[in-house]
TrEMBL record:
Residue ranges of coiled coil: none
UniProt name for this protein: Phage repressor protein CI
Location of the Bacteriophage CI repressor N-terminal domain: 25-87
Source superkingdom: Bacteria
Length: 204
C-alpha cells in the first residue's frame, strides 16, 4: 500500500468549492443587480425568504442564481463565481443595468420591455428600481408600499395609476397635486406603489 499522500487540489479561477462560498457569491449578486437588501433579490428571483436564509446560513453556493444574474445583468461569470477580475466587461458596464420599463396608459400600468440604465445614477439605497413612462416623461421609480410623505409618488386611486406630487398635511391628511383637479384625502384613499427618484421630460 502506498504511503503517498494526496495533495489537495489548488483552488484556481476555474476550480472553486462547489458547495461553499455562498455568502460572498450572494453579496456579489446583490451588487450586480444593484439591490441593497436580500429581500429585494428574493422578490426578483421569485424565491422565498426561507430559501434565501437557508442558503445564506449554510453558505451554499448559488449556482442557479449566478447564471440568472449573469443573463440578466451581463456581469462577468468569473467575477460572480470567484470574485476575481472585473464585475463587468467594458461593453457590459457601458450598456448599464437592466430595468423593467412600464407604461401608464388610461390609468393602467403595464410592463413593456427591459431597458438599460446607468447604475451610477441609481441611489445605493434603492431596492427594486424600474422605469415608468407617464404622459411625456420617464420616471425612475423605486418600489415602495408604506407610509407616504412629501414627494413624488406612483399612486393608485380607485384602481387608476398615476404619478403625482403628494404633500403631508396636519391631521394625517394628504394633498395630491393635479393642477385644477388637486384634492385632499386621507392616506387610506390612495395606494402607494413606488417612490419617484428622478424624472426625464421630453419636450416637443
Amino acid at each position: 500500500m502506498s504511503n503517498t499522500k494526496e495533495t489537495p487540489q489548488a483552488i484556481s479561477k476555474y476550480n472553486f468549492p462547489s458547495q461553499s462560498g455562498g455568502k460572498e457569491a450572494i453579496t456579489r449578486i446583490l451588487k450586480a443587480y444593484g439591490f441593497s437588501t436580500r429581500q429585494a433579490l428574493c422578490d426578483h428571483l421569485g424565491v422565498s425568504q426561507s430559501t434565501m436564509a437557508n442558503r445564506w446560513m449554510r453558505d451554499t453556493f448559488p449556482h442557479d442564481w449566478l447564471i440568472a444574474c449573469h443573463l440578466d445583468t451581463g456581469a462577468s461569470m468569473l467575477w460572480l463565481t470567484t470574485g476575481q477580475g472585473s464585475p463587468m466587461t467594458k461593453a457590459d458596464s457601458d450598456s448599464g443595468l437592466p430595468l423593467q420599463l412600464k407604461e401608464i396608459s388610461n390609468g393602467i400600468l403595464s410592463s413593456t420591455e427591459q431597458v438599460r440604465y446607468d447604475s451610477r445614477l441609481i441611489p445605493q439605497d434603492a431596492s427594486s428600481p424600474f422605469i415608468v413612462k407617464f404622459e411625456n416623461s420617464f420616471y425612475l421609480v423605486d418600489e415602495f408600499r408604506g407610509e407616504i410623505n412629501d414627494g413624488v409618488w406612483l399612486i393608485e386611486i380607485d384602481g387608476f395609476m398615476s404619478i403625482r406630487q403628494v404633500y403631508r398635511l396636519p391631521g394625517g391628511r394628504l394633498r395630491v397635486e393635479n393642477g385644477p383637479a388637486s384634492f385632499e384625502c386621507t392616506p387610506s384613499d390612495i395606494k402607494t406603489n413606488g417612490r419617484v427618484i428622478s424624472k426625464i421630460t421630453f419636450t416637443e
